[in-house]
């Protein structure tokens, strides 16, 4: 069994805004839980484009009526992401989306939600090699809090420490094992893989929404997915950055969004960090086949 997230470390990552937003949660809220780099911007954009209520509890203040208002101090971040930018504009304001169910973004482990009457969880998962690499790239460019900053080199970061365990790889295992266990106690629980969202979004989202009694047509979901393509989301960010950066080259939040992107950077040395038995066991629960440790045959399960 994978390690559990360290509750003390996890709660140390809880901002005042997020803690306040937790007090607003109820049975019509669905936690959208993922490690960073797993595709929150993709699922959030699709849900918004489909007229559904996805909220970023890190940068919005949740309201009792289901709506949420962007916090001004996070405006530069929100402008870069198409759905958040449109939501903050008059055309994409609260009246343009149905308030319930409310889908609440979270990178926190489930201990943060203990005792809260939420209605369920959508677990968003991505191949840990791609997810952790993407997370490192994001934090290297945009990390602001001291704990959010990372070494420039990916391997140096992989050595640890992690956010709520000894290292980032163990973070991934602990996070997804903990959420899989927590999900068993919710009325609604769904696992959505980033790779499936990229390749067949309508087929995976239709049953997930149907379970919540949300009636959205396949055509609406198809159009929402097309509006959330990497090309469109990157074009939006490029326009915002070009306008604000006075022509200087800036890092991008919408980087590549590739499936199996790890094949372009993996080395034998880096592969060793992803051969941990606990990581392999948890990854297989979500359909990912990672290499076994040297000298150990990998289970076909």
TrEMBL record:
Start and end residues of each Sulfotransferase domain: 96-274
UniProt xrefs under Gene3D superfamilies: P-loop containing nucleotide triphosphate hydrolases
Domain of life: Bacteria
Pfam families linked to this entry: Sulfotransfer_1 (PF00685)
Keyword Transferase: yes
Coiled-coil features, chain-numbered ranges: none
Keywords: Transferase
PANTHER family hit by this protein: SULFOTRANSFERASE SULT
Family: Belongs to the sulfotransferase 1 family.
Stated name of the protein: Sulfotransferase domain-containing protein
Higher taxonomy: Bacteria, Bacillati, Actinomycetota, Actinomycetes, Micromonosporales
């Amino acid at each position: 069994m994978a390690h559990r997230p360290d509750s003390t470390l996890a709660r140390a990552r809880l901002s005042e805004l997020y803690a306040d937003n937790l007090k607003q949660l109820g049975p019509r809220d669905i936690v959208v839980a993922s490690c960073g780099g797993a595709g929150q911007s993709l699922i959030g954009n699709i849900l918004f484009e489909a007229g559904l209520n996805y909220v970023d509890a890190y940068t919005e203040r949740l309201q009792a009526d289901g709506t949420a208002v962007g916090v001004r101090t996070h405006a530069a971040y929100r402008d870069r992401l198409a759905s958040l930018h449109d939501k903050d504009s008059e055309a994409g304001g609260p009246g343009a989306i149905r308030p319930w169910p409310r889908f609440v973004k979270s990178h926190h482990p489930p201990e943060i939600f203990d005792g809260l009457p939420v209605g369920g969880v959508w677990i968003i998962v991505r191949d840990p090699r791609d997810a952790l690499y993407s997370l490192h790239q994001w934090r290297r460019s945009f990390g602001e809090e001291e704990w959010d900053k990372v070494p420039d080199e990916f391997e140096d970061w992989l050595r640890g420490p992690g956010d709520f365990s000894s290292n980032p790889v163990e973070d991934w295992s602990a996070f997804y094992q903990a959420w899989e266990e927590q999900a068993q106690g919710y009325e609604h629980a769904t696992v959505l893989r980033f790779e499936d969202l990229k390749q067949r979004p309508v087929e995976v989202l239709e049953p997930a929404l149907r379970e919540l009694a949300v009636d959205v047509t396949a055509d609406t979901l198809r159009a929402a997915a097309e509006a959330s393509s990497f090309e469109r989301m990157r074009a939006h960010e490029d326009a915002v950055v070009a306008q604000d950066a006075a022509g200087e080259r800036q890092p991008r939040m919408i980087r590549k969004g590739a499936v199996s992107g790890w094949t372009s950077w993996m080395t034998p040395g880096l592969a060793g960090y992803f051969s941990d038995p606990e990581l392999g066991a948890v990854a297989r629960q979500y359909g990912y086949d990672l290499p076994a440790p040297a000298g150990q045959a990998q289970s076909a399960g």
